[in-house]
Amino acid sequence: xxxxxxxxRPIVITGASSGIGRATAITCAKVGMPVVLAARRMDRLEQxxxxxxQAGGRALAVACDVARREDCERTIQACRDAFGxxxxxxxxxxxxxxxxxxxxxxxxxxxxxVNFFGSLHIIRPALPTMLERGSGHVLVCSSCLSKIxxxxxxxxxxxxxxxxxxxxxxxxxxxxxxxxxxxxxxIGTRTEFFDELSRRSGxxxxxxxxSDRFMQPxxxxxxxxxxxxxxxxxxxxxxxxxxxALAFSIACPGLTDALLARKVARRRDRLAPQTGxxxxxxxxxxx
Length: 287
Known about the structure:
It is a single chain. By secondary structure, this protein is an alpha/beta fold. The protein has a single domain, classed as NAD(P)-binding Rossmann-like Domain (Rossmann fold, 3-Layer(aba) Sandwich), CATH 3.40.50.720. It is built from ten helices and nine strands. It has helices at 19-30, 42-54, 69-82, 105-123, 127-133, 154-173, 193-201, 218-230, 240-251, 253-275; strands spanning 11-14, 35-39, 59-63, 88-91, 136-141, 179-185, 188-189, 215-216, 235-237. The strands form two sheets. The chain has a seven-stranded parallel β-sheet with strand order 3-2-1-4-5-6-9, sandwiched between helices. A two-stranded parallel sheet has the order 7-8. Helix 7 links the parallel strand 7 and strand 8. The chain is globular and about 55 Å long. 39% of the residues are buried.
């Protein structure tokens, strides 16, 4: 398949105020794509918009809470008004927290409203014109954790697995439509995601103090996404080692469970005297 020329093909990106979303917006603009920046923090969006325009690109900032369907519909319409029908949509907004699998149900529901249903909210209003045109690209920012359920991260892993399964099902349903559907599977990314995770989790987490060996800058993920936009594929990964390790974990679940349980127990024991907090599994309500 020849490489797709991305110039003048508009893209809508949620969660564009920081991290992977912001880096992807800047990278897409560099290759000539008009970019609609969508997130709740307009001050951050305006800073990114100004940077893109100073570099000669085109961008529009739109306040959008992806948990609100009407915000997403308004964002897609804003793209049409400013740049034309979106060629691509990158459903990237999301967050995580550390807590027991028995944590408060309302917090779980809110996470799913943002991470999973927020993805649907931005994708659905963009699809009719893509189908009519017979071309387009839907990208969903899942995670490497979509392939494995980590202890104390069940809510986040669950939401990423839901995105992954939705993207694959949609990809197959639209196989002959001319619309590409891709799931993106970052590993640990050096963004404010972990600061927000710590804030939502009430302090230090089991993720603190981990190795930087599997951490990557958001720009690396952004470059992989642009390569996928040019030459579409079903899944975007930026670490072959992690992808193979997860394949092994699926093939050997018993061994994986034993290794993960041992590792988490050691880290939990190290953190407890430093934080004075009870281990997450002792607070089912997350309080």
